[in-house]
Design goal:
Shape: elongated
Helix content: 25-40%
Number of strands: 21
GO biological process, one term: RNA transport
Main location: membrane
InterPro entries: SID1_TM_fam (IPR025958)
Transmembrane segments: 296-321, 453-473, 507-525, 553-574, 611-630, 636-658, 693-712, 718-739, 751-771, 802-821
Pfam family, one: SID-1_RNA_chan
Strand order of the largest sheet: 1-3-10-5-6
Number of helices: 18
Structural class: alpha+beta
Length: 836
Amino acid sequence: MLGPAWPCLLLPLLPLLPPASAEAFWEAKNVSQKEGKFEVAYTDSVNSELVNIYSFNHTVTRNRTEGVRVSVNVLSKRPEAPVLFVVRQKEAVVSFQVPLILRGLFQRKYLYQDVGRTLCQPPTKREVELQNFFVDVSTLAPSNTAYQLRISRVKNFVLRTGELFNFNTTAAQPQFFKYEFPPDVDSVIVKVTSQTAFPCSVISVQDVLCPVYDLDNNVAFIGMYQTMTKKAAITVQRKDFSRSNSFYVVVVVKTEDQACGGALHYYPLGEDKPVDQGHRQKTLSVVVSPAVTSEAYVRGVLLCLGIFLSFYLLTVLLACWENWRQRKRGLQLTLDGHCSESGHHRVMPDCFPGCSPYEGYSYGSFENCSSSTEGLLDSSGTADVPYTYADRSLEPLGTRPRLESLSSVEEDDYDTLTDIESDKNVIRTKQYLYVADLARKDKRVLRKKYQIYFWNIATIAVFYALPVVQLVITYQTVVNVTGNQDICYYNFLCAHPLGNLSAFNNILSNLGYILLGLLFLLIILQREINYNRALLQSNLQALECGIPKHFGLFYAMGTALMMEGLLSACYHVCPNYTNFQFDTSFMYMIAGLCMLKLYQKRHPDINASAYSAYACLAIVIFFSVLGVVFGKGNTAFWIVFSVIHITATLLLSTQLYYMGRWKLDSGIFRRILYVLYTDCFRQCSGPLYVDRMVLLVMGNIINWSLAAYGLIIRPNDFASYLLVIGICNLLLYFAFYIIMKLRSGERIKLIPVLCIVTTSVVWGFALYFFFQGLSTWQKTPAESREHNRDCILLDFFDDHDIWHFLSSIAMFGSFLVLLTLDDDLDTVQRDKIYVF
């Protein structure tokens, strides 16, 4: 026992105590000081009249770090009068009460009787130093409160590189360990795993400083941290802890599981009383492994550049080979070049309903209408049978103004198709059309019209990209400053930082979109130069043969591919729920532009204008954002979207079937009834445009099925669902185009065949890697990390990076297919090329 002078000796320590502890300290009449020993359990009691002080000492070595742990259990359950423990060290003070009360959601209190804390180890400058610390125990309870105190040394307190260590922890018994960087290691990855998802826990990496923030209510105050169910991984660089070349790995069990996607078991409906949670223990394993070296970064960059720059080399070699082949065969363009006179023979199988021999029917360009059907034979080899033209528009021609058109292609102020030569209502509603019928407008006007596609998407790209870049930089800054790694959904097992970027490999892998998009623009530029040179030479083959050459949409597609790479890289700076549309917006645009280009090939006069096309794509992106924000489980939203989807499908089908020669007004229902009456009741006749009807029926079946799937299943990933709708329609139209091309007697050259086969294979592998699902922002960050996987390529790239590589190659190949698919028609007159 101490004498009367003991208060004076301990007076300087009072400011370090909590108010309740200081009050108990002053009110206590007796102080009991004991010499404590490690690994000995002390069972004592305190009351408002008695304070117990335990004195411990241990030897600290500079080159050896040893952890010290305080374990406390209060045997008397009195929440209204807790026991206060104050641990006084050389450079730190740790105080806590038992029962320990931690707060959760809605400020709910959770009570813990068994508490354990690891003491922060102050540094020493001597080789060997004897350090003392004291444990003060006090309470305001008038009667004795029993407790148990144990001080022990922590085995395996220092983690070793590559060695797995298992341990247990609870919310009131957090654990932390120290790791020291080896001399030859500049970056490590801390991996923590558990066999059970719950209870939810937090993994934190903190500098070697006192105090250590190791409770649920303060673990986020400093360092880097992330929530965890079964997996967690944090990449740590030496430069971030250069002061001590070491750091603490802190593991804390949360009081509630809601942050990890678990249920909230206790809800504050009653009085604000502490809730005894019992034993929320979790068994975990931790291992610290060296991260990739600088050589891996160099290999990754070189691989990425090598893959995509090889396409530039291959393109140059193919261009040289093609030029040599044309020179050898004498097929270079000359001033007196002529188109092929025979064209292709169209084979019309008898099995198609509504097909009739039409060899004697006069169609094609009006200047060459008499020769437009030479050499056409049906599949049975029958003789020519005259075919009579029949108009099948929705309303009688006599009641329709000659210049009236609701097609989005015709300009409001003027029309470049002269009605003196032909009436659009007549020529565009013929049963059988040639490209010459739909390529009658002035080439200069159409060229300017399709150039708008490029200039509009370039403008959209600038205004879209600038705020996106600014936003993701802000996201990355917030992650770096706060240390909250739950903000971004990385694959943390394969996220390699560089500078301020947390996942440089995910950004680097998007380089392919940019490089291949630029290469596609260069290919289009070369083709346009060659075509313009042929026009300047008044080459008849360039003027009157092949699919009309309009390059504006191709330029827009190449720009969209480059922007997809840029915005995908921005998204992967910090992928999360709020910026997912950055990665998908230009995917919608690419799908839409590809469909427009396919349609433009044989419908150059009536293709959609850039303004209406981008307006429709903007509506798609708008619904994408609405679906992501409000679509999850919202039945009303899915009903509205499905109705709009089906309505848009019907309107577009009507537009395509009648080549824009219809009118949406108050008389639309009367005209529909009239057509149904004449075609279904008065006489049962099949569709006049069989090929178009087949495409549109299949398209409606697919779109109605997708709408029903969305309405019934209501998928959580609305953005991907919307993208599937666009891709399915694109694939359907592309397959229809190829089938109709072959059915019309046309052929596909070797290069587009190789592109189709290669692109299909690459798409297959790309989709395999895409569906690996390394992370998902549809779940909590902790649940998303359960899908994380190690790198699979050069220890630098993961499955999603390979998806970036392969999908960029596949998109580039798809663009080449669109570019070269109709090269076989370059020597065929346009009044012999069929429209479908």
